[in-house]
Amino acid sequence: MGIIVICVLAFLLYLWVQGNKPRIKGHVGEYKVKNILLKAFKNPNATVFNDITIRLNGDSTQIDHVVICEKGIFVIETKNYSGWIFGNERSKKWTQVIFKKKTSFQNPLHQNYKHIKFLESILNIDIRLCISLVVFTNKCEFKTNMPFNVIQSKNLKNFIYSNITNKLKPNEVRSLTSKLILSIDNNKFNTSIH
C-alpha cells in the first residue's frame, strides 16, 4: 500500500511540475540573477529588490529586479531561455528556436519599458535615471546583434561595473528606496538593504 501512495504522490508531483515549468524555470533564472546582484552591490548605498509588484491606477506590473544605487536605478527583466534567440530593439516579438521548434515571446525591452514607466510615475523621477537591462541566462545563444542592454548573466557584473557615471547622491538613493518600499504591493518583496 505504501508503494502505491508514493507512486501516486510522485505522479502528482510530476504533473504539478509539468504544469508549472515556465514559472519554475523563471524563478530559477531570477534566483541566479539575484545572487549576482547581491554580490555586485555590497555597499551601503545600494538596495536590491527582487520580484516586486507595483500597482498604479488599477493596473499592475511585476518587476524581476530593481537596484537603486548611486549609478541610478537598474530595472532588470530576467529570461531563463535556452536555444537560439532572435530579436531586435523594435520588434514586438522575439523568437526562441530549439532544434526546429520556434516560439515567439514579447520583446523583453518593451516589457521592461512598462516597468520603467511605472517607476517613473510612482517615484516621480526623470526616466533618464533608469537603466533598462534584460538578462538572459547563459543557456541561450544570441543569433542576432542585441542592443547593448540585452546581455547574458555571465556579463552582468561587467555591465554593472562599466563606465556608468553616478546619477544619484546617497541621500537620493535612500529617499527613492523608501518611496519604492511604500509603493510595493502589500509590501511583499524580497530585498537586500545594505
Provide the fold topology.
Elements: H1 2-19, H2 21-40, E1 46-56, E2 59-69, E3 72-79, E4 83-86, E5 93-98, E6 101-106, H3 108-123, E7 130-136, E8 140-142, E9 150-152, H4 156-160, H5 170-183, E10 190-193
Parallel strand pairs: 3-7, 4-8, 7-9
Antiparallel strand pairs: 1-2, 1-10, 2-3, 4-5, 5-6
InterPro entries: NERD
Pfam families: NERD (PF08378)
Protein name: Nuclease-related domain-containing protein
Give the C-alpha Rg: 19 Å
Poorly predicted sequence stretches spanning 5 or more consecutive residues: 15-26
Number of strands: 10
Please tell me what the overall shape is. globular
The structure class reads alpha/beta
Strand arrangement, major sheet:
9-7-3-2-1-10
Main β-sheet, in a few words?
Answer: 6 strands, mixed
What percent of residues adopt helix (DSSP H or I)? Answer: 25-40%
Can you put this structure into words, describing what you see?
The chain has one domain. The protein has 5 helices and 10 strands, in the order H-H-E-E-E-E-E-E-H-E-E-E-H-H-E. The strands form 2 sheets. Strands 9-7-3-2-1-10 form a 6-stranded mixed beta sheet, sandwiched between helices. Strands 6-5-4-8 form a 4-stranded mixed beta sheet.
Short summary of the structure?
The chain is of the alpha/beta class and 194 residues long. The protein is 38% helix and 32% strand.
Keywords:
single chain, 194 residues, alpha/beta, six-stranded mixed beta sheet, four-stranded mixed beta sheet, 10 strands, globular
